[in-house]
Amino acid sequence: MLLNIVFILVGISLVLWGADRLTEGAVAVAEKLKMPQIVIGLTIVAMGTSMPEFCVSLVSALKGTPDLAVGNIVGSNIFNALLIVGVSAMVAPMAITRVTISKDIPFALVASIVLMIMCLDGHISRLDAATLFVMFIAFMYITLHGAKIGKTEQQEESSDIKTEKKPMSATMSAIWIIIGLACLIGGSNLFVEGATQVAAQLGVSEAVIGLTIVAGGTSLPELATSVVSARKGNSGIAIGNVLGSNVFNILAILGVTGLISPMTIKGITTTDLSVMVVSMILIWFFSFTRSTIERWEGVVLTAVFVAYMWWLL
Fold first, then answer.
1. In what residue span(s) does the Sodium/calcium exchanger membrane region domain sit (predicted)?
2. Given a cut of 60, is residue 84 above it in pLDDT?
3. What is the C-alpha separation between 207 and 229, in angstroms, rounded?
């Protein structure tokens, strides 16, 4: 038990430090490429911080524990949308761009609804998984294609990119991103290993472990990265990271995992899936209020997350 607690503490420390390095590198990349922060957040940062979910879900499915695999994704998306956006908005109000309101949030919402529908029969087949993965490819094409068009919008967003130091070189940016991702993934794995062992000793079910302990652990990179980005005034990366991670979790991770190993789901309830969908609706609704998620709205999102955890446990 003592060793598991050490794993948890070391894991959290690595995640927090790695998030800071990743954010610095990602902002520098955004400046060098003259791309909107939201695109960097939706692609590089989102995929990097979703690697723990990918590893955990794939291994869980292959080991015959699909409830842990799907629970990890559903729980992570709830964690991302409610707690991460909530805490980030409480740290600093998050500005939402027009493109995010009209394209990125609706796409994340559609992905959540599609997953909910697929899970109603308690099974994710290879056909379901293939559908999810095709949707992911479409999302990436739309996002990267929009980056070219969005360069004209970069002049409006450039004021959002704040640097406290001299411009970082391309080499240094790449080094920070790699080191940051390595710390995020390594730290998350340590956290999940320790937390899962503790939960198992307490006799908690796979579904609940996936929805809480594992989801929280694998979402630590998103939490740390978004909070650090919000604190530094880079709200584009903060919100883009959450939306991109949610889309990546559902479409890419469950798409690839389901193609390799079709999953039968027993412990994930309609309530869990409904909370995932409602969380995205709340973000979309709040983003229409002056194109900003205010501090009080962050409090509401966090309160909904706490209420869901209370109900679950």
1. 5-143, 173-312
2. yes
3. 31
- Domain extents for the chain? 2-154+167-312
**Nearest to 236, CA basis, from 105, 91, 42, 79:** 42
Listed residue (205, 249, 257) closest to 79, CA to CA: 249
Whether 272 and 305 have beta carbons less than 8 Å apart is answered as no
Q: What is the pLDDT of residue 209?
A: 81
For 211, residues 6+ apart whose C-beta sits below 8 A from its C-beta are 71, 72, 74, 75, 78, 268, 272, 312
Q: Give 192: exposed, middle or buried? Use CB within 10 Å, 0-12, 13-18, 19+.
A: buried
Residues 113-131, mean pLDDT to the nearest whole number? 94
SS3 track for 188-249: HHHHHHHHHHHHHHCCCCHHHHHHHHHHHHHCHHHHHHHHHHHHCCCHHHHHHHHHHHHHHH
**Helix, strand, or coil (residue 95):** strand
- Give the CA-trace dihedral at 188, 189, 193, 194, to 10 degrees: -40
Nearest to 17 by CA among 163, 165, 179: 179
Q: What is the rounded CA–CA span in Å between residue 131 and residue 96?
A: 29
Fold of the 2-154+167-312 domain? A middle domain of Talin 1 (1.20.1420)
Cα 44 from Cα 104, distance rounded (Å)? 15
Q: Given pLDDT bands bounded at 50, 70 and 90, which one contains residue 161?
A: very low
Q: Is the pLDDT of residue 147 over 80?
A: no
**Helix ranges (DSSP H) in the chain:** 2-33, 37-40, 46-49, 51-62, 66-78, 85-91, 98-99, 105-119, 126-149, 154-157, 170-201, 206-209, 215-218, 220-231, 235-247, 254-260, 270-287, 295-312
